[in-house]
Amino acid sequence: MREVAELLAALPTELWIGGEQTPALTGSTFPVHNPATGEVLIEVADAAAADGARALDAAAAAQSGWAATPSRVRSEILRRAWELVIARSDDFAMLMTLEMGKPLAESQGEVDYGAGFLRWFAEEAVRVHGRYTHSPSGNGRILVTKQPVGPTLAITPWNFPLAMGTRKIAPALAAGCTMVVKPAAETPLTMLLLGQVFADAGLPPGVLSILPTADAAPLTDPLFADDRLRKVTFTGSTGVGKILLAQSATRVLRASMELGGNAPFVVFADADIDAAVDGAMAAKMRNTGEACTAANRFHIDNAVRAEFTAKLTERMRALKVGPGHLDGVQVGPLISEKQRGIVTELVQDATEKGAVVATGGAPIAGEGYFFEPTVLTEVPAEARILREEVFGPVAAITGFDGEAEGIIAADDTEFGLAAYIYTTDLDRALRVAEALESGMVGVNRGIISDVAAPFGGVKESGLGREAGAEGIEEYLETKYIALP
Question: Residues with catalytic annotation?
């Protein structure tokens, strides 16, 4: 693995437009910070409206040629990009740990997961099918074909700097769409390195642009108003998603929204408690709890709540917290001082309303944005932490009696992204999974994301699906051709 200074010195720091690096037209840059120390890692180009226009110009100019490119050629470019990401896995992992904070082992896991979308959609690119049939009336034939939606704007979050990009870029490119990506201001470095990978893989100029910026609205608002843009795909908070949906509505843009979550983790009385605690640690503490799929509310049958709470508390108390690049670290910093403040506020609100701190409960003094792994028990229904996505290393536990009450508690939220249930009864597992108002349900497992499975939510957790066979459909239009 290269030294950090060497890695940063070789890193692309300008905009990717037209297949090459270019400075922002204003010459502006902004700093990227290391959340483990608060120090500036490096400065990157700060895109503005004129840069967005350049990128959309390039995307529009490249669209027809890329759509006409044989699917096998598109497939091979994605395959080469996968190979190059894997070849540079150490660089990608270190960058993610530096700019986002997650432990290096988790960053390495994200490289494999994020690169997997490139390989998966390389395979899906050649499997876009239409349909040919006779009209039931007998007066004609029906030809159904699929065509790329067209130039797309992707807005990605900071918590999975590689995977949230590849999960959008790969299906768009596989379908024949060009794309402009605006990565999160907190974590643009991984995406800029991915731009280099695509250039090295032979992606034609203009097909993919990457525009980091410290101020999103001045860059993206003109893109929404441009009639050449055909689609927006966004991962982030529900509040921002609603704003983007309103903007999309003015031009009836195709929209995919992967929004906030408030995932319940439901443990029934017949569950294997040790397995449930293992699953809880994975579902809660992956990515330091900064994941939209993270377990947020722990609904535990009162018959086993004391046992589950004691075992989870012991596991949480034993976690090693520190900078993600250090050996043995299991919990890194939160992304920013602002995010740590939000977590602190939610914990304080819960305790003021009667919750009991079993372990943790406070920010960690010193440099960086660290927070103690925390377990709260006796959390009252009116606590904000049961209503709001905590995005931090805090498990809030509350009890229930019986299956029906557990389902009601789990569904008592406007969100519906992920849910987790633990039971040894197969009938109950299927019955509850079908009853839960959630786009994804993990049964006796704490990690559910898979490149081959559709990812997305219901209610205020979003629209559309990413990954799986369904993922490419978000970038395809269906055309019906009537034949005599």
Answer: 258, 292
